[in-house]
Amino acid sequence: MYKAVIVGTGPAGLTAAIYLARANLNPLIIEGPEPGGQLTTTTEVENFPGFPDGIMGPELMDNMRKQAERFGAEFRSGWVSETDLSQRPFTLTVDGLGEIQTETLIVSTGASAKYLGIPGERENVGRGVSTCATCDGFFFRNKKIIVIGGGDSAMEEANFLTRFASEVVLVNRRNELRASKIMQDRARQNDKISWSLNRTPLEVIAGEHGVTGLKVMNNATGQEEIIETQGIFVAIGHTPNTKFLGGQLTTDEHGYLLVNPGTTATNVPGVFACGDVQDNRYRQAISAAGTGCMAALDCERFLESVHS
Ligand SMILES: Cc1cc2nc3c(=O)[nH]c(=O)nc-3n(C[C@H](O)[C@H](O)[C@H](O)COP(=O)(O)OP(=O)(O)OC[C@H]3O[C@@H](n4cnc5c(N)ncnc54)[C@H](O)[C@@H]3O)c2cc1C
């Protein structure tokens, strides 16, 4: 039986691991399907403090893992498929490891960006296709960029990207946008944004040096068109990775875990959530790491309170 189990090894989980290991709580960290988390799928990270020349995503995550291991954190490969949080100790069912019992649980399983599932899309992530304007916008200075989506986050990403891009083309399958009026108005008032509505994205076109265009179908005419671009931002939402929790933790309407404001405590005492799985707003490595630290400290205090 463990005092603390952390599920997920992105910046949130690994930061929590460093803190709990240094507090002598010997945490077990379950890595899941993507050891190191989302940053292992990118190249250069330029906005994580402490690296004036930037650092490659996989290297940053490897460093965090080594830092946790140095203080005695135990890592295991496995996928948590089920949890029983109805009583403490909690029980986790981990594919490949069986059942694990723990006094406390830190959930840091992230949120996966939704993709369109069109040819050329996934293979060009990091070569012109992105799901994060805050992370990658800077790489597209003075270039023409496409943003795909019709919700608030697509409007926000499009507006943000006009800081760098020479032009932003907003592509949406329908003529109407799902975004709130205020977000639409803001985007419509932006001279750098042009609109390619009622277009269904069909294929990302790329050459040796990355993305060169997006093939779309004009739904009004049935004609295929190619919009030339070097950057495509897919902004159609994220799915928080919470299936294994079986609805035992309270979420918002988008499926993000809810925590008591200013803490990482969920509705189940002893279960804490950090990183993108509880963050529909910032979704950055540094904010994930920050809440990972908070989760570890909340967890330590919880253990102290139940054992004193
Ligand atoms: C291509 C790309 C580039 C990015 N670039 C930047 C950048 O430059 N700067 C920046 O600040 N942010 C960037 N981000 C965002 C940043 O990566 C995320 O905000 C951050 O990784 C979130 O950390 P996290 O710890 O919450 O979760 P994640 O990094 O998503 O990690 C989730 C972890 O949970 C595990 N997991 C999930 N489900 C289960 C399960 N059922 N059982 C066990 N384990 C499970 C996964 O294996 C993984 O280890 C980028 C994201 C992407 C996709």
UniProtKB/TrEMBL annotation:
Pfam families: Pyr_redox_2. It is an enzyme of class 1 (oxidoreductase). Its EC number is 1.8.1.9. It catalyses: [thioredoxin]-dithiol + NADP(+) = [thioredoxin]-disulfide + NADPH + H(+). Belongs to the class-II pyridine nucleotide-disulfide oxidoreductase family. This is Thioredoxin reductase. InterPro entries: FAD/NAD-bd_sf (IPR036188), FAD/NAD-binding_dom (IPR023753), Ferredoxin-NADP_redctase_2 (IPR050097), Pyr_nucl-diS_OxRdtase_2_AS (IPR008255), Thioredox_Rdtase (IPR005982). It comes from Paenibacillus apiarius. Residues 2-292 form the FAD/NAD(P)-binding domain.
